[in-house]
Amino acid sequence: MAQARRTAPYGTWPSPIRPVDVARGEALLEWVGFVGDEVWWTEALPEEEGRAALMRRGPEGVAEALPPGWDVRTRVIEYGGRPWAALSHRAEDGVVFTHAADQRVYHWRPGAAPIPLSPPGAWAAELRYADFAVRGGEVWCLREQVADAAGTRVRRHLVALPLDGSAAEDPSRVRVLAATHHFMTGPRVEPGGNRVAWIGWNHPDMPWDATELVVAAVAPDGTLDEPAVLVGGGQAVTQVDWAADGSGRLYAVTDPGGWWNVHEVLPDGGLRNLCPREEEFGEALWRIGQRWCLPLRNGSLAVVHGRGERRLGILGPDGDLDDPEAFARAGTEWLSPATDGRRIAVVCAGPRRGRHIVLADPATGEVDIVRPPAGQDLDAWATTPYRHTFRGENGREVHAHVYPPYHPDRTGPDGELPPWIVFVHGGPTSRSPMILNQEITFFTSRGVGVLDVQYGGSTGHGRAYRERLRENWGVTDVEDCAAAARGLAAAGLAAPDRIAIRGGSAGGWTAALSICAEPGLYRAAGVYYPVLDPASWRANGTHDFESRYLDGLIGPWPQTKDRYDERSAVARAHLIRSPFVLLQGLDDTVCPPAQAALLLKRLEGSGLDVRYLTFEGEGHGFRRAPSVVASLRAELDLYGRALGFTPAPDEERPERTRGRSE
User: Fold this and answer.
1) Are 561 and 555 in contact (CB under 8 A)?
2) 415 exposed, middle or buried (CB, 10 Å; 0-12, 13-18, 19+)?
3) For tag attachment on the chain, is the N or C end more exposed, with fewer CB atoms within 10 Å?
4) How far is residue 635's CA from residue 568's CA, in Å, rounded to a whole number?
5) Calpha distance 253→213 (Å, rounded)
6) Are the C-beta atoms of residues 304 and 328 closer than 8 Å to each other?
7) pLDDT digits (tens, 9 = 90+) for 290-319
8) Alpha-carbon span 411 to 433, nearest angstrom
């Protein structure tokens, strides 16, 4: 007979999930690829100050692939991009990668030390590289030249680096291939090497607004003929790839119909939609080299698709889409896919399972776990989330993920409603997946509910939904979060006086504006590395990639200056009545500490309960375990004071040693 759960006030439940477990469990698994028959990927190590190790699963299990100490990460467009690639299908040829410390490209072969392929950056320009392809004796990739520490003066080129290492000491050996746009992806080289394709766009567009697909023929001497724009005209091409079967077909994931669908690009630039659906087969291109559609050698395509989620399917040449049952059982979110032409290696997750890496075989339907989820011993404390659509202003839909409080041995008192935290994802042109997430379980296992709002502007629901935020950032997002929170209370799930809000980056902006606009709704806020004053942020406060983002989110400058002033959390600071904690990385070039300083200065002498925590060595998003631990403890302490509960102390448990062969 099951043991009855004990009754205890919400928020006070003891939980084995400590902040340090969150740091470990939410470490990034990404940039999956094949080296020979093996699956490799990058994995952030919070206990090693966020170093991104290149990992592999070999015959003896999971282990680090490179010699100790290498940090496989690029700072291209500040958000990064694909930092490594295999040289060929033969494992003995090794890999090329970007090392975070100096941003140089290195070539590593088994049994040897990595050797540099790119020259060091000059005193006036840091050089960054990403999104590699191999053609002959060269590595083709995107190069970014950054001329200032703030990342505001930047030039980009497609370049070729000799594999013999001669450019490491002689920069003249680097060949410039093309520079068609201010922003570009890396080159996609046609099998056989005769043509190359890439995506480009210019300010003020962001890559989810409008991009162009460019193709150029490769001359016998390895130079490119005059590039031609095949697809453009206001649509957002988010991925381009060549067929793997040698047919010469070119595929683009683009949205002329309002949804990112897979299209074949015809020779005259026309498009043939292979699977017309009101679903997304791609995402916003926040990082250079992201892929969602993978050509297979048999002429079919592995696709990650869905509406508000991402499932792995196989799209046949005839347009039939098959979602194998074994794939569906494995997870509802599939990220960072790669293929060897037959099998698919991918990061997978679902509502009851955290991120892990699997190897899926379309021929057999088998799904093999390559790297299990971290912290599986804590999964029993995870809640079961569900999707719900609330109604916002004028009856518009507001999508959200609801994570009720849950503990296997505790329940709340009859008649008591739990405290809730509204989670606001960053971007804002992004989304958050509904998966087992130890950061969320940290709260729900203590008796605090989480409402993860996919406000208007979020991806996953088509262009019309994400463009609800156009020129309305700071309005639509704030209204949608409030509508979802009030809807939760109206449904009898939340007490109106026990709701807080938290978010990072663009989510931090929405959280800060929400406590300005809704002082009676939110009793506390956790604000991570936010935008707080849009006028100063656009003028000299952020990096090149997002320096014109506000043209679409708020309006063109200076014609709409009044909107910038009206929506500034700094200008509206006098309306804040709720306590909040402000958390900031001191190395953040996306939302620099100057933004936080403006708000804190405006609040001097107000007597408001504000705690400000800064973290050296952290940029935009915390990678180090001590930063995550300090942040979560500060948040939980704030929510306890503001929402009326006393958190239980961390449970003492033996430290778990990070297992390379987990």
Assistant:
1) no
2) exposed
3) N
4) 24
5) 10
6) no
7) 999 999 999 999 999 999 999 999 999 889
8) 27
Q: Is the dihedral of CA 478, 484, 488, 491 positive or negative?
A: positive
Quote the CA–CA distance of 88 and 189 in Å, as a whole number: 13
Partnered with residue 43 across adjacent β-strands are: 29, 53
Beta-bridge partner residues of 130 = 142
Do the beta carbons of residue 255 and residue 467 sit within 8 Å? no
- pLDDT tens digits, one per residue of 344-396: 999 999 998 999 999 999 999 899 999 998 877 788 999 999 999 999 888 99
* Residue 235 near residue 248, CB atoms below 8 Å: no
Residue 123 burial class via C-beta count within 10 angstroms: exposed 0-12, middle 13-18, buried 19 and up: exposed
What the block records as the tokens of 447 is 């008796």
Residues 330, 285: Cα–Cα separation, whole Å: 25
pLDDT, the chain, mean: 94
Q: Are 293 and 301 contacting, i.e. CB atoms less than 8 angstroms apart?
A: yes
The string of pLDDT tens digits covering residues 252-266 is 999 999 999 999 999
Query: What span, in angstroms and rounded, lies between the C-alpha atoms of 454 and 458?
Result: 6
Alpha carbon 319 to chain centroid, angstroms: 29
Phi, psi of 495 (to 5 degrees): -80, 130
Extract the runs of DSSP E, i.e. beta strands, from 172-307.
175-178, 183-184, 188-189, 195-201, 212-217, 228-231, 239-242, 250-254, 261-265, 271-273, 293-295, 301-305
The model's pLDDT over 201-245, given as tens digits with 9 standing for 90+, comes to 999 999 999 999 999 999 999 999 999 999 999 999 999 999 999
> Which among 258, 296, 294, 252 is positioned nearest to 274, based on CA atoms?
252
Assess whether pLDDT exceeds 80 at residue 540. Answer: no
Q: What is the pLDDT of residue 656?
A: 43
CB 158 within 8 A of CB 178: yes
How far apart, in Å, do the first and last CA atoms of the chain sit? 33
Helix, strand, coil % over all residues of the chain, rounded to 5: 20, 35, 50
> Is the entire prediction scored with pTM above 0.90?
yes
Beta bridge partners of 57: 62
66-96: string of b/e by CB count within 10 Å (b at 16+)?
beeebbbbbbbbbbbbbbbbbbeeebebbbb
Identify any residues that bridge with 422 across adjacent strands, giving them in sequence order. Answer: 451, 501
- Sign for the CA dihedral angle at 205, 207, 208, 212 comes to positive
Closest by CA to 385, choosing from 425, 332, 334, 342, is 332
Q: Rounded to an integer, what distance in angstroms lies between the CA atom of residue 115 and that of residue 113?
A: 6
Write out the two tokens for 292.
């969602």
The SS3 assignment for 248 reads: coil
Q: 515 is written with which tokens?
A: 């406590």
The packing angle between helices 506-517 and 476-490, to 10°, is 70
pLDDT of residue 658: 38
Best CA proximity match to 302, nearest among 323, 271, 287: 323
